[in-house]
């Protein structure tokens, strides 16, 4: 295959701007899938992706397109996610491309993730083709959207394409623009093999399927290849192209192509995204390609089985999940209140929700989740910098010289009428105002520097509420700053519940502690004795609530009738007790641990 006929490009956009729908139209126009076999979100194979209507993992597919110039081109398309939590998927995909279609909703206009994705494409030096989608909507405003693209992204509005991915209007024109504007891949077809690993997935029957973009040379079945970064060597058992929902084996992959490689690789940990694949015999003389920054976990929480006997089942479920999600991590940990479980790292709250939902569906194990935490840094008196991923890892307060929290650059695009409310929201969350720029008469772009812990939980929900659904946000980690933070402990009947401990700013510790105790009081059942709930910083109690004693007979009101009525009540009580954890003599239900998250989401008075 000649490299001049290859076009490698990606679709990037804000969430819900129509990327997957446009990809469906490309499959239809190029004949990759017959119209009667075409389904919505054809490239999204996960049930959760279809149910939520979002893309979680980038998908690659090879298409054959007969252009108007009479030539046939090979188009390697990568459909990417739009949510900020999965921005790393976009970064990986762009490393394998020369061009990108920047999709903008004609009714919504430019949004925060649109700007962020455009910056990623520019940083990768890609040819960006602006596309205005959903022009068939009654509320579409394509002319205003073109003006926003020109003023904010500095892309000429004359280059914008107007399409409707739903009806197919303008789709073929976009493919012609890809053929015309996106350059063919550069490289040397006769040089030794150099290929970039831009993704990998696990197949339970075939092992790890490595996603490659060949920069130089070619790779065939039977070749011995080495991954320069990891240093491991494998024999190539199969190479080929990606087709919709299946793989197509080929004899070889050549310079400029995007495809896959299988080589008896057992686990995803044996493959490093961004690594260079080369021939073993030429490994010493082959220069490595520029690497890819691995994803950084932003949110951590503990996941525990409700029954200690389910620990091994939970471990197996997490291992299966990690096989197809290299951005998810877990390490064993133990808690006095919850027993043995795992400390898990996620890219963000949506990623955490996806992992938890998949666990419940695929493992059939009842789990208890602790309140999420972000990563902090602590400078000790000895000059050592510690990375803190949970409150239990904090050293004694007397050993801490400086407490640092992660800070992000926050970008908000919203209606101009909401500026005052959004300023108050950001400043209440300890944000520092950056700058403000009107991208049109009715819309404004604002930037802030804000603690990650203040926005990662519910900031997006508040933003949508204040802007009536028209506001969007994006954030980027910029570093750590010193802050007056403390570890707030929760005591139940005088015993500390480590799973309920949180790290908070000293100014709001008392307010949040009181709210947490009030919520816990509602969710912890009354016992035969009084239960004291306390919030403490060090040895100082800052808030207290009490749960009155109560004696209750569950079948007291069940007089007369069939005996099965009493059995039903007793079975119901037994099922409820299964989901409780003991702290001393106090039973704490799962909902009590989850309720802490709700308190953290509420703004402090």
CA gyration radius, whole angstroms: 27 Å
Strand neighbour order, sheet with most strands: 11-10-16-7-8-15-12-13
Distance between the termini: 65 Å
Proportion of residues in helical segments: 25-40%
Overall CATH architecture of the largest domain = 3-Layer(aba) Sandwich
Provide structural commentary:
The protein has 605 residues and is α+β, with helices and mostly antiparallel strands. It has five domains: 3-181, Rossmann fold, CATH 3.40.50; 194-282, Translation factors (Elongation Factor Tu (Ef-tu), domain 3, Beta Barrel), CATH 2.40.30.10; 299-369, Alpha-Beta Plaits (2-Layer Sandwich); 377-483, Alpha-Beta Plaits, CATH 3.30.70.240; 486-601, Elongation factor 4, C-terminal domain (Alpha-Beta Plaits), CATH 3.30.70. It is 26% helix and 34% strand. It is built from 14 helices and 34 strands. Strands 11-10-16-7-8-15-12-13 form an eight-stranded antiparallel beta sheet, with no helix packed on it. A hairpin with a 2-residue loop joins β28 and β29. α7 packs across α8 and α12 packs antiparallel against α14 (590-601). The longest helix is centred in the last third of the chain and has 18 residues, at 506-523. It starts with 5 loop residues before the first strand and ends with a helix.
């Amino acid at each position: 295959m000649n490299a001049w006929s290859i076009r490698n490009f990606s679709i990037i956009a804000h969430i819900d701007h129509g990327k997957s729908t446009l990809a469906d139209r490309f499959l239809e126009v190029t004949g990759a899938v017959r119209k009667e076999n075409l389904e919505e979100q054809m490239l999204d194979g996960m049930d959760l992706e279809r149910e939520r209507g979002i893309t979680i993992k980038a998908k690659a597919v090879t298409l054959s397109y007969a252009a108007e110039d009479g030539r046939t081109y090979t188009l390697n398309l990568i459909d990417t996610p739009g949510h900020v939590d999965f921005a790393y998927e976009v970064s990986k995909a762009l490393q394998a491309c020369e061009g990108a279609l920047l999709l903008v909703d004609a009714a919504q206009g430019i949004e925060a993730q649109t700007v962020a994705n455009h910056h990623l494409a520019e940083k990768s030096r890609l040819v960006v083709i602006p596309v205005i989608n959903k022009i068939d909507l009654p509320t579409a405003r394509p002319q205003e959207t073109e003006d926003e693209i020109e003023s904010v992204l500095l892309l000429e509005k004359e280059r914008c394409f107007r399409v409707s991915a739903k009806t197919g209007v303008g789709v073929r024109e976009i493919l012609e623009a890809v053929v015309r504007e996106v350059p063919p891949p550069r490289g040397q077809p006769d040089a030794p093999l150099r290929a970039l690993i831009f993704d990998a997935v696990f197949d339970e029957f075939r092992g790890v399927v490595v996603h490659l973009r060949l920069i130089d040379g070619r790779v065939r079945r039977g070749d011995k290849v080495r991954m320069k970064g990891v240093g491991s060597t494998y024999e190539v058992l199969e190479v080929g192209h990606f087709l919709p929902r299946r793989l197509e084996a080929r004899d070889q992959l050549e310079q400029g192509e995007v495809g896959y490689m299988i080589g008896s690789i057992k686990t995803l940990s044996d493959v490093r995204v961004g690594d260079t694949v080369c021939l073993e015999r030429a490994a010493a003389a082959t220069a490595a390609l520029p690497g890819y920054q691995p994803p950084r976990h932003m949110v951590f929480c503990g996941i525990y089985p409700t029954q200690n006997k389910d620990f091994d089942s939970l471990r197996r479920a997490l291992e299966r999940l990690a096989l197809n999600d290299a951005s998810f991590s877990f390490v064993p940990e133990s808690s006095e209140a919850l027993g043995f479980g795992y400390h898990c790292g996620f890219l963000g709250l949506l990623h955490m929700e996806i992992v938890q939902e998949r666990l419940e569906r695929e493992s059939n194990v009842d789990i208890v989740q602790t309140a999420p935490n972000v990563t902090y840094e602590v400078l000790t008196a000895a000059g050592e910098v510690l990375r803190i991923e949970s409150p239990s890892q904090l050293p004694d307060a007397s050993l801490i010289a400086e407490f640092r929290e992660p800070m992000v650059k926050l970008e908000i695009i919203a209606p101009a009428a909401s500026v005052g409310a959004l300023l108050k929201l950001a400043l209440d969350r300890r944000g520092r105002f950056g700058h403000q720029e009107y991208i049109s008469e009715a819309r404004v772009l604002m930037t802030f520097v804000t603690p990650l812990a203040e926005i990662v939980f519910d900031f997006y929900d508040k933003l949508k509420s204040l802007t009536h659904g028209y506001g969007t946000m994006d954030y980027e980690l910029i570093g750590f700053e010193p802050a007056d933070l403390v570890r707030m402990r929760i005591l139940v009947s005088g015993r500390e519940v480590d799973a309920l401990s949180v790290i908070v700013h000293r100014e709001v510790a008392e307010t949040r502690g009181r709210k947490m105790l009030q919520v816990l009081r509602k969710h912890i059942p009354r016992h035969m004795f009084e239960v004291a709930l306390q919030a403490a910083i060090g040895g100082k109690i800052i808030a207290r609530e009490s749960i009155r004693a109560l004696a209750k007979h569950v079948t007291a009101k069940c007089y007369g009738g069939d005996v099965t009525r009493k059995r039903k009540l007793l079975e119901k009580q037994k099922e409820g007790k299964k989901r409780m954890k003991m702290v001393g003599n106090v039973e704490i239900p799962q909902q009590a641990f989850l309720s802490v998250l709700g308190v953290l989401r509420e703004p402090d008075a």
